[in-house]
Amino acid sequence: MQRLKRVFTSRSTVVTVLILFALAICIPLAVPQMSETAASAAWQKSYPGLAQIASWVGLDRVYTTWWFLALAGTFIISLLVSSWDQYLFALRKTRQAGAGADPGVRLAGSREVFVAALRSRGYLPIGGDVPGSRLVRNPWGYWGSFLLHLGLSLTVLCALVYVGTEHRVLLRAIQGEEIYLAGESFAEEKGVLAGKLPLPAAVRLDSFSPSFWDNDQLRGLASEITFLESPGTGPRLAIGINDNVRYRGMLVYQRNRFGTAFLLRLVDPRGNVSDEVLYLQQPGGRRLAGYGEASVGAGRYTLKGKYFADTKRQTVLPVNPELTVRLLEGAIVLGEAGLKPGEGKKVGPYWVTLEKVRWWGEYVLDGGRGTAGIFAGFGLILFGVVLTYFATPCVVTLREEGGKLHAFWSTARFNDLLKEERDRVVALARKEDSDE
Amino acid sequence: MNKSFALVTGLHWGAVLFYVAAAILSSYGMIFGKERLENTGAKLAVPGLLLHGAGLLVWWRVVGHGPYMDHFEVLSSNAWIVVTGFLLACRLSPRLKVASIVVYPAAFLMIAAGLFFRPEIKMLPPTFRSIWLILHILFYKIAFASLIIALAFSIFYLLRARGRMQRFTRLPDLAGIDLIAYRFTGFGFAFWAIGMLAGSIWAYQSWSIFWNWDPVQTWSLVTWVVFGLYLHLRRFFGWHGEKAAWLFVFCFALTLISLFITPLFESSIHAEYFK
């Protein structure tokens, strides 16, 4: 067991793990990951040979490979064992450290007076061969490194718990429409240990309120959503960007992706009617267009849409939107038409009517666990840093030398910055300071 | 609006003039042992800092948000924090003054680069309205300031070890220079870590995800891990002197890539602030 412990805390192990970790996280900078679908597909097309090797080794999905998990596991074990070592080290230092190369100064007065003066300066009697022979100012400063390691361990462990249990549901809602959460109406990201989320039966986006600056950049985004738990009823919650809400233990977020949804009715030459929705991204300005596309005719055709929020280009709000649709079969354009709300036109083989124009927005329901532990870890790291840099321990040790009592001052670090403190203690020892 | 732009530009150029003068007088004073010139140089940085601060405040009022959205704002506020951090550090330890040879030129070059990119009014997106973002940016700026000072002393070590900078009698000995570089690197490392943590909290608050391996995030983590490696090699493997100085220079190059270069080229939420 001791040997195993030594392996995990050896300097070589720590340095090797750090180097491998740095190299591993550099890989996605060079090799597009599978999660970046478009970039990954383009890379595979450009470098098929390399892509095959990358896939075999797992370079295109670094964070889910066994070797990365093994590396992360080694890192965590090393951190945990280090944290224990740091704890023992801090405990030892708190009770024993001090008396470095400082030459010491002979006490001019009595031990009791000197000790009282030190205590008034915040020095506490801790440890020492003889009780009262060692006084420490800021003894908690020895614990900074331990807290840093402990905080890192907790953060990384809880991050793994979070990744394992993460469960995020992404849904897109259209203002005024009820979206039933079943089948393909929402997207999910799940960790291997994720359970079932207590989702509502449906959601309804009751109101959607984007606001814009004069230069058309997004100023704010807020909405009201009803979570329908039983037919027609459920809590109505107000959500905004940076203004999350809790629902059944999940955190609900407003995403900053939104735009205008064009609800279209398509009638094919045989009279079959289908309803399609073109989700077009909000344009970046009143003179810019928003784009989107949808697959129609069981995937045979692509319906592309482009719109300006206002035909007169006077606002970025869709008060008078100008939609242009184009139907393609592969690369062949079958038809194109401009549509206003309520208007119908022939586009390729279809009669297309623009039924409604509504806002759409995206929302995330996050049910992952472990976030409290991650924040606690952050807090420990921060506390550790504060103790390390702003609470430097100073030690005064009292020893008899040549029949006279001498005081030796030392500090754990920042000797230069604490020179004044040393001079103060020396002055106290020589009874030169009026503090007595 | 044009008057405000002119005022901000004027204040910044005024600051540049003071920083340039401070750099020249400090360096001349140090090289030729003229203490009065050296002290004058140090004092000139203060009005420069005040003008610079005034320029940032006026700009803040114009755009309605803190200086972290545009090239110009980012570079200017970085420069301000670097000079402020340096002056505060010199108050605590006067022998750090020699780093002015690196700090003041770095500051005026950053301001000049920012002005070259032409100040642009960018409105704050709603996801950027969070105290955690402000803390995230502030801690990174403090880390950067600390690392600039560490860079200065790493460079001084490399030059001194080659027999240069002999005229700089106020410089500590090689061991002292090495220790200062080490301490400021540790400080920068700590604040870089806290900056990343604050950024993760902001990301979780805004987008429901602590870490999504965004290129800027990834480079930031790589930089932090490599700085961690530097500190471990120093502490446990006795790396010091030239080896450590060259490793620090490499680490600082990663810092520049993380903070300034990656946001220019990669698609990232961080690119909002630097594109």
Percent strand of chain A: 25-35%
Classify the helix fraction of chain B into a percent range: over 70%
Largest sheet of chain A: 7 strands, antiparallel
Instruction: Tally the helices of chain A.
Output: 9
Shape of chain B: flat
Span of the ends, CA to CA of chain A:
54 Å
The total beta strand count of chain B reads 0
Unreliable spans of chain A are none
Give helix % range of chain A: 25-40%
Helix/strand-derived category of chain B reads mainly alpha
Task: Profile the largest sheet of chain B.
Answer: none
Mean pLDDT of chain B: 88
How would you spell out the order of helices and strands of chain A?
A: HHHHHEHEEHEEEEEEEEEEEEEEEHEEH
Outline of chain A, from the CA principal axes? elongated
Radius of gyration of chain A: 34 Å
Q: Write down the Rg of chain B.
A: 19 Å
Provide mean pLDDT of chain A, rounded. Answer: 86
Task: Quote the beta fraction of chain B.
Answer: under 5%
How would you classify the helix and strand content of chain A by structural class? alpha+beta
Give structural notes.
The complex is a heterodimer of chains A (436) and B (275). Chain A is of the alpha+beta class and 436 residues long. Chain A has 9 helices and 20 strands. Chain A has helices at 2-9, 11-30, 37-46, 48-57, 66-96, 111-120, 144-165, 371-390, 419-429; strands spanning 105-106, 123-125, 134-137, 167-174, 178-180, 186-190, 202-212, 218-228, 236-240, 245-247, 250-267, 273-281, 290-296, 301-308, 322-329, 332-339, 344-347, 350-366, 394-401, 404-411. Chain A is elongated and about 115 Å long. The two termini of chain A are 54 Å apart. In chain A, 32% of the residues are buried. With 275 residues, chain B is an all-alpha fold. Chain B is built from 8 helices and no strands. Chain B has helices spanning 2-31, 35-63, 71-92, 100-116, 131-161, 174-207, 215-237, 242-265. In chain B, α1 (2-31) runs antiparallel to α2 (35-63). The two termini of chain B are 22 Å apart. The A-B interface holds A 11, 14-15, 18-19, 21-22, 25-26, 28-29, 33, 63, 159, 162, 168, 213, 215, 217-221, 240-242, 244, 251, 253, 255-256, 364, 366, 371, 374-375, 378, 381-382, 385, 388-389, 413-414, 416-417 and B 92-93, 95, 121-123, 125-127, 129-130, 183, 187, 190-191, 193-194, 197, 200-201, 204-211, 213, 215, 218-219, 221-222, 225-226, 228-229, 232-233, 236-237.
